[in-house]
Write a structure and sequence with these properties.
The complex is a heterodimer of chains A (476) and B (218). By secondary structure, chain A is α/β, with parallel strands linked by helices. Chain A is 46% helix and 13% strand. The radius of gyration of chain A is 23 Å and the shape is globular. The longest helix of chain B is centred in the middle third of the chain and has 24 residues, at 63-86. The chains are: A alpha/beta (476), B alpha/beta (218). Bound molecules: cobalamin. Cobalamin sits between chains B (99, 104-111, 113-114, 150-152, 154-157, 181-186, 201-204, 207) and A (95-97, 133, 161, 195-196, 198, 206, 226, 228, 232, 272, 279, 281, 348-350).
Chain lengths: 476, 218
């Protein structure tokens, strides 16, 4: 059996679903964008003068059904496309605005973003890539620079952020340039647009705009309820689920109204449990993992993909970092969350650590093995081998040869962790995993070259950025 | 201890517990007993909120307890303020602050917590909300003449606004009329110094403590 961790009974899934519907009818959801309000009204939804939409249960259920069951995240290289299937768990890097080096953190640059993308491209367990911020570039243009850095340095699917309306248009242009035009983009939307509701219960101007402008290209919409638990949602997991689910559902309804059949991801897994003393929004807390796993269960109930964040609040790749990453990775993974972000991330969501990415890749190796569970068949029971080896023998002998083919699947191998004797470990320099991972990251960056982007396309991307710069100058 | 003192002691304890009903009762009771309203504030309400603040600062209590205490204090003050006015006495003004999240940024939870705590500590607070255009900050500073302008920014793409606003205050001839405090996840003490802000705080409690020193110093 492949294990599935469930935090909610069937009845409880239903009850939370109903609670979300109740919230959407009684309190409603505010849409800040006037055009969005009109779109909702035209669809027969009651929107008051303040922009608060109150949804009837049947409307929500009707539209959520229109979201397709199959969602594909597409990469520059079609071989790297990620098909999100029920029960399949995929992994992505984290995001950040600092790069951790040892005990220090410094602001991340465009060059860091390029290197980060290149390193994620090389990670065998990483399915898709998430940007870090080019903070050395003009602040209004960081989204375009991040996009370019990602597009040039990985052929895997990637996700970026859109900071403004002009930013979205430019990103659509950039994505089109890469696949060969807008028509092609509709067929191969290599980029996906994510936005979170402002908890409690608001869709911002920007979020509505991102959803609207990217809809014609069928770009998958990553629809998030992302509360700070205890701050922008009640402190209980149940209430947080009901509220963030209501937020995300209303976003999916909106997306289906503007584009029926648009692929949508229902993400409740980016919630941040607040530290009720320091007020900091935490990420390495198991509560985040529990919400994500339960959120994945709800998403499955609607037949939609889900997401989570494997994270730590630690500042360096230390023991806390390791255990928090393993727990916040494993819990949502066992909950069969479709997309687990956060590889390489540390210090809330502020920073990435290149060495940590290497370590997390190994944590994911172990997680993937756990997800494979126990396969029980006549073959895997190996009864004949047991009989042949007999009492007191061992299973390394040719008598058990038919079992050997299971070695790669049943065991795990480490590439950076240490399973040697003390002597061997000392011989190799007696370094801890942080040090070894740091060296490995440097080695990969010195050698790994992803399939380069066609120079003509790079020129087009540059032209789009140059144009954005000019417009910025004009505005100022 | 006299009953008056015991009542004030109880009052400060009720503020600490965030027990709004008891605070209301004890404030009214003390006024009925003829206790000087300023003394009720000093030995009761203010003492209570100060202790809550200290305990929060030491990490002994949750933010919710701090805010409940603040709310209890506020309710108590609402009953007392008219009495103080009636006696033609004046409560020492703590100070005033205009706060908002800079243009391009919609993060508001932290700013709201900061605003709530300022208000609890007796500051007059004008909260301009999120994504506030530069000119609006400037216009409001001109209009209200607050002691402090608080600028929140959470993203590396929006913190340059804090610097721009300080420059804008300068060019509008307002820089020496208002103290600027900045905060938010993406900024720190060094950055605050670098852009010439008067104060930085990494959380709401520190923000109030810092603000009080800024209001006193010329
Ligand atoms: C919750 C959250 C959101 C919520 C906001 C909800 C809300 N109502 O505010 C939502 C989901 C809407 C959101 C949206 C986005 N977010 Co956001 N968000 C966060 C998150 C996780 C927590 C922020 C928070 O509320 N913390 C808790 C509060 C209490 O803390 P605080 O704000 O820091 O405030 C305290 C102190 O800083 C201080 N303080 C605050 N203000 C002030 C002011 C003064 C004057 C003083 C003295 C002190 C002070 O006191 C407060 C209380 O202790 C942070 C990451 C993090 N862990 O911090 C990212 C983060 C800030 N977001 C980020 C991003 C990128 C975005 C988006 C662009 C993402 C997107 N594409 O959807 C959009 C932004 C849209 C926009 N134009 O602004 C990034 C910024 C990265 C960068 N380059 O800087 C962060 C760092 C996450 C990340 N690594 O990606 N976000």
């Amino acid at each position: 059996m492949k294990p599935v961790l469930e935090f909610l009974s069937t009845d409880e899934v239903y009850e939370i679903h109903q609670a979300s519907l109740e919230i959407l009818e009684r309190v409603g959801m505010k849409f800040e964008n006037v055009e969005a309000q009109q779109i909702l009204r035209n669809a027969g939804i009651d929107v008051d003068s303040k922009g608060v939409a109150r949804f009837h249960s049947d409307t929500v259920e009707e539209y959520v059904k229109k979201a397709p069951r199959s969602v594909v995240l597409r990469g520059r290289d079609p071989k790297k496309d990620v098909f999100l299937r029920n029960g399949r768990v995929t992994f992505a890097s984290g995001t950040g605005m600092y790069v951790i080096e040892g005990n220090k953190a410094r602001k991340s640059t465009y060059q860091d973003c390029c290197n980060w993308a290149r390193l994620t491209d090389a990670m065998k367990n990483l399915d898709f890539s998430c940007e870090i911020h080019s903070t050395d570039m003009p602040s209004e243009l960081t989204d375009r620079y991040n996009f370019k850095a990602m597009a040039m340095n990985t052929t895997k699917p990637f996700v970026g952020s859109s900071l403004s309306k002009a930013g979205i248009f430019d990103e659509i242009e950039m994505a089109s340039a890469i696949v060969g035009g807008k028509e092609e983009l509709r067929k191969r939307p290599i980029w996906w647009a994510g936005y979170a509701a402002i908890s409690p219960l608001t869709w911002s101007e920007n979020a509505c705009t991102v959803f609207k402008e990217t809809a014609p290209y069928n770009i998958p919409a990553f629809v998030e309820g992302e509360s700070v638990i205890g701050g922008t949602s009640a402190v209980t997991v149940a209430s947080t689920l009901a509220q963030t689910n209501a937020e995300a559902l209303s976003g999916i309804v909106f997306n289906q109204i503007i584009k029926k059949g648009r692929p949508c991801i229902l993400n409740l897994g980016f919630t941040h449990p607040m530290d009720m003393k320091t007020c900091l929004a935490l990420h390495g807390n198991v509560v985040a993992g529990i919400v994500a796993a339960a959120g994945a269960q709800l998403a499955r109930f609607y037949g939609l993909p889900s997401a989570a964040w494997m994270a730590t609040d630690s500042k360096t790749p230390d023991a806390q970092c390791g255990y928090e990453k393993a727990l916040t990775g494993l819990i949502p993974a066992l909950g069969r969350t479709s997309l687990v972000f956060g590889m390489g991330q540390a210090e809330f969501t502020f920073a990435v650590d290149f060495a940590k990415l290497i370590i997390d890749d190994e944590i994911v190796t172990q997680i993937r093995r756990t997800l494979d569970g126990v396969e029980v068949t006549d073959e895997t029971l190996c009864l004949e081998a047991i009989e042949r080896v007999g009492i007191g023998g061992n299973f390394l002998s040719p008598k058990a040869c038919e079992t050997f083919k299971f070695i790669p699947k049943e065991t795990t191998e480490l590439t950076i962790g240490d399973r040697n004797t003390r002597e061997k470990w000392l011989e190799a320099g007696g370094k801890d995993i942080g040090k070894r991972a740091e060296e490995k990251a440097k080695e990969i960056l010195a050698t790994h070259e992803p399939e380069p982007l066609d120079p003509d396309i790079v020129k087009k991307l540059d032209a789009i950025i140059e144009n954005a710069k000019r417009n910025l100058g004009r505005k100022a | 201890m006299s009953t008056i003192d015991t009542n004030l002691e109880k009052l400060s304890k009720s503020v600490m517990d965030g027990d709004i009903d008891t605070v209301k009762f004890l404030v009214k009771e003390s006024l009925k007993n003829g206790v000087n309203p300023l003394e009720i504030v000093d030995k009761g309400l203010a003492k209570g909120i100060r202790t809550v603040g200290e305990r929060y600062g030491k990490g002994e209590i949750f933010l919710t307890e701090l805010l409940m205490g603040a709310e209890a204090m506020k309710v108590g003050m609402e009953i007392i303020s008219p009495e103080i006015k009636k006696q033609k006495k004046e409560l020492k003004k703590v100070g005033s602050i205009i706060i908002g999240t800079v243009a391009g940024d919609i993060h508001d939870l932290g700013k709201n917590i900061v605003a709530a705590l300022f208000s609890a500590h007796g500051f007059d607070v004008v909260d301009l909300g999120v994504d506030v255009p530069d000119q609006k900050f400037i216009d409001k500073v001109k209009e209200i003449k607050p002691n402090i302008l608080g600028l929140s920014a959470l993203m590396t793409s929006t913190i340059p606004k804090q610097r721009e606003l300080i420059n804008l205050l300068k060019s509008s001839g307002l820089r020496d009329k208002v103290k600027v405090m900045i905060g938010g996840a993406a900024v720190n003490e060094d950055y605050a110094r670098d852009i010439g802000a008067d104060g930085y705080a990494e959380n709401a409690n520190d923000a109030v403590v810092k603000a009080k020193t800024l209001v006193v110093s010329p």
